[in-house]
C-alpha cells in the first residue's frame, strides 16, 4: 500500500505520468507481498485513483484520462502476472527441495531397515540351520565316542571337540549379528535438516541414537517430517529447534519454532496423523502455542509395549531439556 501511494504521490507532485510507470514496478512485487485478490484489488484501485491526477496534473480530458489508465492497466497486469508466475515457480522449487530432503530421509530409513532385516535373516538362518546341524553332529559324535575304542576313539573325540568349538563360534556370530541390528536414527533424521528453504533447523540428538524397532523408527521419522512441514507452511517460522532424548525406555522429541503462533492449536490432518501413529505404540503428543510465541511440540514414544507413560499435564508449558556435551551433539543447518 505504501509503495502504491508513493507512486501516485510522485505522479501528482511531478505533474507527469511517472506514477503509472512506478505502478508497474509495484505490480511486479505485489505477488510477493499480498495474496492474489487483494493485490489485484489494490492495483485496480490505484489505476482509478490516478485518473484525477491525469486530469488535474496533465490537463487530460476525462475520456483521455480513462483511456490512459486503461492502457496502463494492461501493462501493470502483465507485470503482476509475471511476478505471480515467478513467485509460484519459486515456491514450487522450495517445495521440491523440501520433498527431496524427506525422500532422502525415507531412503536412509529404508536402507537401515533393509540392513537390519538382512542381518536378522542371516542370524536366523545360522541359528536354525547351521546351529541345528552342528548340535546334531556333536550329539552323534558323543555317542560314537562311547562305541569305539583305540585310535578311532581318539579321532572321534577330536572331531567332537572341533564340532563343539564350531557350534560356539556360530552362536557367537549370531549374537554379534543380533547385537548390531538397531537402526541408526542419526543417519535417518539428519537429511531432513538440509535444504529446507527459509528455515534454519537446529537438531540436538544423542551421539549414539539407535532404535531396535523399525516401526518406531518410522513413527519418529514421520513425526519429525510433519513438525518441519508445519513450521514451513503454517507457522511462518525462520528457526526450528529439535531436541531428541533417549533414556533407554522412552524417546522424546521437544520442538520449538519462532513462528507467529496462534490463539489455540487446531488439530489438522497432520497433528491427527501424529497422534494416531504415537497412540498405536502407546505414545503421547502435546502442542502448546500462543500468539507471537510460536509453537512448541513435545512427543514421547515408548520403546516397549509394556511401558506406560504418565498422564501429561494439560496446560503445562513444554520444558527445555538441557543437553550434555559429552553424550550429545547439535547439528545446526541454516536455511539456504
UniProtKB/TrEMBL annotation:
GO terms for cellular component: membrane. SMART domains: HATPase_c. GO terms for molecular function: phosphorelay sensor kinase activity; protein dimerization activity. It comes from the Eukaryota. The chain crosses the membrane at residues 12-33, 40-59, 65-86. InterPro entries: HATPase_C_sf, HATPase_dom, Sensor_HK_TwoCompSys, Sig_transdc_His_kin_sub3_dim/P. The keyword Kinase applies. The keyword Methyltransferase does not apply. CDD domains: HATPase_UhpB-NarQ-NarX-like. Keywords: Kinase, Membrane, Transferase, Transmembrane, Transmembrane helix. Residues 215-305 form the Histidine kinase/HSP90-like ATPase domain. This is Histidine kinase/HSP90-like ATPase domain-containing protein. It comes from Rhynchophorus ferrugineus. The lineage of its organism: Eukaryota, Metazoa, Ecdysozoa, Arthropoda, Hexapoda.
Amino acid at each position: 500500500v505504501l509503495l502504491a501511494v508513493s507512486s501516485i504521490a510522485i505522479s501528482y507532485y511531478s505533474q507527469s505520468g511517472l506514477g503509472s510507470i512506478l505502478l508497474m514496478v509495484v505490480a511486479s512485487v505485489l505477488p510477493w507481498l499480498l495474496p492474489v485478490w487483494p493485490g489485484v484489488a489494490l492495483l485496480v484501485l490505484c489505476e482509478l485513483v490516478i485518473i484525477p491526477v491525469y486530469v488535474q496534473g496533465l490537463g487530460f480530458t476525462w475520456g483521455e484520462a480513462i483511456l490512459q489508465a486503461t492502457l496502463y492497466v494492461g501493462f501493470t497486469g502483465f507485470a503482476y502476472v509475471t511476478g505471480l508466475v515467478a513467485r509460484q515457480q519459486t515456491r514450487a522449487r522450495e517445495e521440491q527441495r523440501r520433498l527431496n530432503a524427506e525422500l532422502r530421509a525415507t531412503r536412509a530409513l529404508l536402507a537401515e531397515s533393509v540392513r537390519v532385516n538382512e542381518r536378522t535373516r542371516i542370524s536366523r538362518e545360522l541359528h536354525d540351520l547351521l546351529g541345528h546341524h552342528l548340535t546334531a553332529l556333536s550329539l552323534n559324535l558323543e555317542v560314537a565316542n562311547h562305541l569305539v575304542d583305540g585310535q578311532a576313539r581318539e579321532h572321534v573325540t577330536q572331531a567332537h571337540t572341533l564340532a563343539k568349538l564350531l557350534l560356539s563360534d556360530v552362536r557367537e556370530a549370531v549374537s554379534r549379528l543380533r547385537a548390531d541390528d538397531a537402526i541408526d536414527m542419526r543417519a535417518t533424521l539428519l537429511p531432513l535438516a538440509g535444504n529446507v528453504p527459509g528455515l534454519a533447523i537446529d537438531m540436538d540428538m544423542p551421539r549414539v541414537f539407535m532404535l531396535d524397532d523399525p516401526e518406531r523408527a518410522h513413527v519418529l521419522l514421520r513425526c519429525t517430517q510433519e513438525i518441519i512441514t508445519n513450521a514451513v507452511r503454517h507457522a511462518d517460522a525462520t528457526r526450528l529447534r529439535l531436541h531428541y532424548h533417549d533414556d533407554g525406555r522412552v524417546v522424546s522429541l521437544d520442538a520449538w519454532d519462532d513462528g507467529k503462533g496462534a490463539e489455540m492449536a487446531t488439530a489438522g490432518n497432520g497433528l491427527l496423523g501424529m497422534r494416531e501413529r504415537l497412540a498405536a505404540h502407546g505414545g503421547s503428543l502435546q502442542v502448546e502455542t500462543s500468539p507471537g510465541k510460536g509453537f512448541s511440540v513435545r512427543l514421547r514414544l515408548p520403546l516397549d509395549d509394556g511401558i506406560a507413560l504418565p498422564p501429561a499435564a494439560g496446560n503445562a508449558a513444554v520444558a527445555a531439556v538441557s543437553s550434555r556435551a559429552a553424550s550429545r551433539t547439535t547439528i545446526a543447518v541454516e536455511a539456504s
